[in-house]
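HOLO CASE FILE
Compound: WTA
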Amino acid sequence: MTDIAVLLSETRSFPPPADFQRQAHVRDRGLHDSATADPIHYWAEQAKSLTWRTPWTQVLDWQPPHAKWFTGGTLNVAENCLDRHLAGPRRNKAAIVWEGEPGDRRTLTYWELAREVRAFANVLKSLGVRKGDRVGIYLPLIPEAAVAMLACARIGAIHSVVFGGFSPESLRDRMNDAQAKVVITADGGYRRGQIVPLKRNTDKALEECPSVQHVVVVQRRAAGPITEAHVDMREGRDHWYHRLMQHAPDACAPEPMDAEDVLFILYTSGTTGKPKGIVHTTGGYLVGAASSARMVFDLKEEDVFWCTADVGWITGHTYLVYGPLANGATCVMYEGAPDWPERDRFWQLVARHGVTILYTAPTAIRAFMKWGVEHPRKHDLSSLRLLGSVGEPINPEAWMWYHEHIGGARCPIVDTWWQTETGGIVISPLPGLTATKPGSATQPLPGYSVQLLTQQGEPIPTGGGLLSITRPWPSMLRTIWGDDRRYVETYFSKWAGRPDLYFAGDGAKRDEDGYWWILGRVDDVLNVAGHRIGTMEVESALVEHPAVAEAAVVGKTHELKGQSVCAFVTLRDGHQKSSALREELREFVAQKIGALARPDDVLFSADLPKTRSGKIMRRLLRDIAEGRALGDTTTLADPNVVNALKEQYADSEG
Ligand code: WTA
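Model generated. Tokens follow.
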């Protein structure tokens, strides 16, 4: 409620600057109007900008909650992202401008990238990878990550990228769920000057991944080779990327794929159980990615587009690789941390590469604010013409800071709301058309139908409610890998008898102008530094520790990260609480899942607040973590538990 009150008081509005508007792809509402009048026709028009091998016979086949788009059509994603640019002036244009954290640099033209992808596609084939097989990608943010994704797409293999910051156990679970045949990794990557031992992690993960037959290892040389301490190549299973590539032929015809063939699986956190393998298919996904990249980022031939996300997340899939490359854009890719070696690294990159469009996350913007304006001021940022934000709500102060200090008050800001499940941006300003309001993602893109609903499914014209997408869209997830029931239950069962309504899991507010203000998750999914973490995943990790009997995890508001992980832990008999054990548990979670899940707070408690039916009342734990007055406690089995916890929490804070 307080969030809504704060947002309501935001009255500033920024119309598109005249000179931006003049050159923009979209500058009048005609597109919105025609898309609303006939969304199917609109999407068919968008799809025509891609290269199809055979045309589709039906645009949409909707059997709620299962959609098929562009049925009967065939195409290849790699051909659309590469080959079709090679005949014209884009042939020698930079596709990827890359910088490693230690300062090493590489630029790949469309021609070079296409060659590398074809050769690597042949390497995959030589390792026995066939159409429909799953390939794991566990790499630092280096050009080979895009090469590996596109090579899979070229031969019709399904990739599943796992963020390089995830632990061996996270990799293992994802590879087992996907039944991957091959894993592509590197000897290491760089993060804040340290080597991330990806190959060693992979070895550990693969001790329990019987489906994986081969591992391809990219040699990440920068400040000299990564030492043998980090790599132990297993005969027969492990192969160096550069050796395999030496002899790989560079001709490889793109496999014509059915529009509904799976392009990739990307795992994301849910409220319960293990991460969900979100399934995206070929035709619809690429239509969504390509059209939104062009429209929202107003992509032009001369642009230098920098999306700072890692390929391990959906943002990296859609707006670092597929969307911009399908448009023939130049993409900047940076491997490392924003404060390495100094806090001006991003601004140095913008100036050095002449970045025109910067797409980053509120958590980064808040960190830059905290570090101070002297860092961006050291560099010439005048090449920038458009800024973007994604991953969590951006607070109006952060928006204003971004606008003034990075955008020089001249660049429109696109605050883009979407999810792993949506495949591409759903709510966002169109920078040449929409007047922006700091903190609002503004309005749904053309072709999307979004509504605010009550718990009972009644539409709410203005005010707060649950965000629902009420018509299928091309880049929507198709299912959860191996678990279609969970797909139906999680996304299309919120409103009884309405399997056509997609439940996003976010709360939102609509103001009198029809602008959307995203309020965050309404379920138990945390958003830490723009990354989704399931409370359940952290709880499962904690209870694996021998000292822990029970754990409940909630999110707590955090100045920079948006939310931090706060864990309430009950110990087994015979174990004593101590600050050493607290540290051990924090580290334990980081080892089990990855550093981003490490709890900031661990609170030991003799008991957890539960309902009479035994359900942990996370809502009350959130109140405690936030230091708020406790909400309704009447359904508690034992009201004393929360009071004791509250006192203890106050002590631990002080
Ligand atoms: C949140 C990232 C407010 C939201 C693309 C969503 C946002 C979740 C925004 C998806 C935004 C993303 N404003 N909240 N502009 N963008 N979110 O799957 O809670 O990693 O449900 O996809 O991030 O996170 P995911």
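CASE NOTES: The pocket of WTA is lined by residues 268, 313-315, 390-393, 415-420, 441, 504-506, 518, 520-521, 527, 532 (CB under 6 Å). The chain has a mean pLDDT of 94.
CLOSED: yes
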